[in-house]
Amino acid sequence: PPRSTLFPYTTLFRSYADSGKITEHVFLEYLIKGKLNVYFFKDEKNQSHYFASKDKDSLIDLTPELIMVYENGNILSQEYSTSYKGKLMSLMLEYPQLQNEIQNSKIDHRDLIKVAKDYHQYICKDNSCIIYAREVKKTQIKYAIFLGVGYSETSRLQINSTFSAQPTTFPIFVDKHYLNLGIDLHVLNYLPQAERTSFKIGIDFFRNNYANNYKFNLISKDTSVNRYYDSYNICFNIRLIQNIFTSQNTPYFGLGFSGLYSFLESYKDYKSTAIFLNNSISDNSFNKFQLGVNLSAGYQWRMLNNKLFNVEFQYKKFLTKQFNANILLGYEF
Q1: How high is the mean pLDDT of the chain?
Q2: What is the DSSP string of 32-68?
Q3: What's residue 103's pLDDT?
Q4: Distance between alpha carbon 210 and the CA centroid of its chain, in Å?
Q5: CB under 8 Å to 128, separation ≥6 — which residues?
Q6: N or C: at which end does the chain have fewer Cβ atoms within 10 angstroms?
Q7: Which neighbouring-strand residues pair with 258?
């Protein structure tokens, strides 16, 4: 396609320095275009690469190399080189005032764009030399309160019975509906080159009631018990969130950890036999802290006046396995 249709991207016929790599055509993204150009792209291994050029000069590779120190055949230490700082200084020799800023810079979108912008300010005070500069959003910390309803299916694997000669453990499937109140802390744009990735910490409070059905064989008789629970629950979630789009409304995926504490409020038993069973069933998933994996997927709508609307599905693996579907309305601060 014509190059104008690619902007802010350009093309480069680049020969990799690594042995075994072939020369290939790649697309570079302009981070800033002007008297000094800075480019970026990610290779097939998801490694970030940065380049710079001045006027019509050839490209200079700013990507730092990994330096490893060996001792007796073992890796003693490894760190990335800072050779990019010297290369940037050589590009801006006429303005030594920038050298301290370059020395303190990191090899990422935010710092490279800032250094290049400051260089252009020395060249032309009104920034008219800058044709294009990618916007890098600042790291943001936002708080949100959510209220919603949910449905869950739970496989409880720690239900014990004393009906038989030996206590038994078996899976029980539970359906439950609940009200949910949540508080989230959301860290956005903490990775300048990955604006769709964010970090979320949340606490959910919910009260639910649900039923278990227990079936046993007691002295050659089938015994069935329906137990109805009421409980309070606190769930802590720490998740890495990956948005599909950078727009306000986007589907997303999440991966992280959850901690669950369930307080058993009360329960009632209804039996199908005349035998009085009393408290001979114990559910070990109550009144203890459970730590597990959290997988989530959902869609978020950002509405007017900081309002949020979320539809979310979560799979959590504790002592129990849970699948949750939530509809949440929130307000972001």
Answers
A1: 76
A2: EESSEEEEEEE-TT--EEEEEEETTPPPEE-PPPEEE
A3: 92
A4: 31
A5: none
A6: N
A7: 237, 292
